């Protein structure tokens, strides 16, 4: 069965510093991975996704993630964060191949706190 | 596209009352998901539908919760009777049932049961 582990519940960082949010997954079928962002009092929105091809995926707002099959990881990175990046970030893996219904398995989330 | 629409955005009710949350998925999407989010338990999948048919309701916490999808453009999540521990933000999401299809989330309904 698929599962997702986000290794940090909170990540504090100063503005303009780089950040990495860590995500490890477990999957017995083809791997499709996602990162979502949730700003305060809003729903989740897609940052980026990996389906196949290049292991480095670029998303919105300057974020990128790298798929590492050998380490079963999909870490999210940004070279320089802004105050506006303060939000909760969710890593998810598709359940496709198990249920074929578009179900996603979400991690517990990482709160990114950008300090001035 | 208007995105996923949820109503109401906020609901305050007294314990024991019936609560109905509504969702309109994105036109053309054939999978619909109901989630609940709390500080304590994080984001939980309650139930999901494919082509209007419930596929897995194992996340529904108890019989007080029920969900329906009478057609491709409308779904409801009902809690009867409501309890204070049901207070949470409830999200609806929809997607195309395909390889790698992402889910699109609505803005959520913040439910407070007093």
Oligomerization category of the chains in this entry: heterodimer
Please tally the β strands of chain B and state the result.
11
Q: What is the β-strand count of chain A?
A: 12
Shape of chain B: globular
Distance between the termini of chain A: 41 Å
Poorly predicted runs of 5 or more residues of chain A: none
Helix count from the secondary structure assignment of chain B: 0
Percent of sequence in beta strands of chain B: over 45%
Q: β content of chain A, as a range?
A: over 45%
Rg of chain A: 14 Å
Mean pLDDT of chain A: 92
Helix content of chain B: under 10%
Helical content of chain A (DSSP H or I, runs of 4+):
under 10%
* Tally of helical segments of chain A: 0
Structural class of chain B: mainly beta
Rounded to an integer in angstroms, the radius of gyration calculated over CA atoms of chain B is 13 Å
Q: Give the SSE string of chain A.
A: EEEEEEEEEEEE
Mean pLDDT of chain B: 94
Summarize the largest interface: chains and residue counts: A-B, 23 and 26 residues
Structure description:
- The complex is a heterodimer of chains A (116) and B (114).
- Chain A has 116 residues and is mostly beta strands.
- Chain A contains no helices and twelve strands.
- In chain A, the strands form three sheets. In chain A, strands 2, 5, 6, 10, 11 and 12 form a six-stranded mixed beta sheet that branches. In chain A, strands 3-9-8-7 form a four-stranded antiparallel beta sheet, with no helix packed on it. In chain A, strands 1-4 form a two-stranded antiparallel ribbon.
- Chain B is mostly beta strands and 114 residues long.
- Chain B has strands spanning 5-7, 10-13, 19-24, 31-38, 42-50, 53-56, 65-71, 74-79, 88-95, 104-105, 109-113.
- In chain B, strands 2, 4, 5, 6, 9, 10 and 11 form a seven-stranded mixed beta sheet that branches. Chain B has a four-stranded antiparallel beta sheet with strand order 1-3-8-7, with no helix packed on it.
- In chain B, strand 7 (65-71) and strand 8 (74-79) form a beta hairpin.
- The model of chain B has no long low-confidence stretch (mean pLDDT 94).
- Classes of the chains: A mainly beta (116), B mainly beta (114).
- The A-B interface holds A 30, 32, 34, 36, 42-46, 49, 51, 90, 94, 96, 99-104, 106, 108-109 and B 4, 31, 33, 42-43, 45, 48, 50, 55-56, 91, 93, 95-108.
């Amino acid at each position: 069965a698929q599962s997702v582990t986000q290794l940090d519940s909170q990540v504090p960082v100063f503005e303009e510093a780089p950040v990495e949010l860590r995500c490890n997954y477990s999957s017995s079928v083809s791997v499709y991975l996602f990162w979502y962002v949730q700003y305060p009092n809003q729903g989740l929105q897609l940052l980026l996704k990996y389906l196949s091809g290049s292991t480095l995926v670029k998303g919105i707002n300057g974020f990128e993630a790298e798929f590492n099959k050998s380490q079963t990881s999909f870490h999210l990175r940004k070279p320089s964060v802004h105050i506006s990046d303060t939000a909760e970030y969710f890593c998810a893996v598709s359940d496709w191949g198990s249920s074929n219904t578009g179900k996603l398995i979400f991690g517990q989330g990482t709160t990114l706190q950008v300090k001035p | 596209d208007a995105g996923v629409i949820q109503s109401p955005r906020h609901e305050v009710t007294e314990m024991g009352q019936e609560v109905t949350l509504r969702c309109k998925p994105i036109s053309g999407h054939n999978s619909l998901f109901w989630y609940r989010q709390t500080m304590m338990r994080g984001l939980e999948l309650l139930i999901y539908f494919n082509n209007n048919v419930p596929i897995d309701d194992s996340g529904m916490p108890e019989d007080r919760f029920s969900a329906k999808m009478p057609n491709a453009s409308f779904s409801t999540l009902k809690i009867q009777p409501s309890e204070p521990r049901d207070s949470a933000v409830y999200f609806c999401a929809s997607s195309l049932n395909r390889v790698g299809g992402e889910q699109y989330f609505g803005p959520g309904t913040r439910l407070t049961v007093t």
